[in-house]
Write a structure and sequence with these properties.
Blueprint: E1 7-10, E2 22-23, E3 27-28, E4 32-38, E5 49-60, E6 70-77, E7 88-94, E8 101-110, E9 115-125, E10 134-136, E11 142-146, E12 149-151
């Protein structure tokens, strides 16, 4: 089953080998989502990606476990921009820290031996809970604010 990314970095066609930096929308801390690096505009309909290397670094803020943000292996999916098969790399990004800006690098390998770099900046905003709040989680359980933490009753 195809994975659908939450955030997408799309390559511009026919750029120099080093693509410009792209800023993704800010995300709330401690969330999990899929980031897609869409190489479709750089490929021909018959070119396919064969694999990728992915790295994350911290540009600002503090995250001692930044290498743990990318979980599992990347997958190769159909391009959203062009519809080409095997033209987008998807990664799972987990539990970013509030106040941190990350740079995520993706180096895709094509079947014909090319390495195509893309990267993006991702800022994570802290989630602030003020006062007493009641929140319902995705399973319908009611969670209540207990000071600085939300705990299950």
């Amino acid at each position: 089953m195809a994975r659908v990314p939450t955030l997408v970095v799309t390559a511009a066609p026919k750029l120099s080998p080093i693509s410009p930096v792209r800023d993704l929308p800010s995300v709330p801390e401690q969330t999990n989502f899929i980031i897609g690096f869409d190489y479709g505009p750089l490929l021909t309909p018959t070119q396919k990606l064969d694999g990728a290397g992915v790295q994350v670094v911290v540009l600002s803020g503090t995250d001692d476990d930044f290498t743990d943000r990318i979980i599992g292996d990347s997958s190769i999916e159909r391009s959203i921009a062009t519809g080409y098969d095997a033209a987008m790399i998807c990664i799972d990004f987990a539990n970013p820290v509030g106040g941190v800006t990350y740079r995520i690098y993706c180096f895709a390998e094509t079947e014909d031996g090319q390495t195509l770099p893309l990267w993006a900046n991702l800022s994570c905003v802290p989630v602030v809970i003020t006062g007493s709040q009641v929140v319902t989680d995705d399973t319908g359980n009611t969670l209540t604010d207990q000071g600085s933490e939300i705990t299950s009753p």
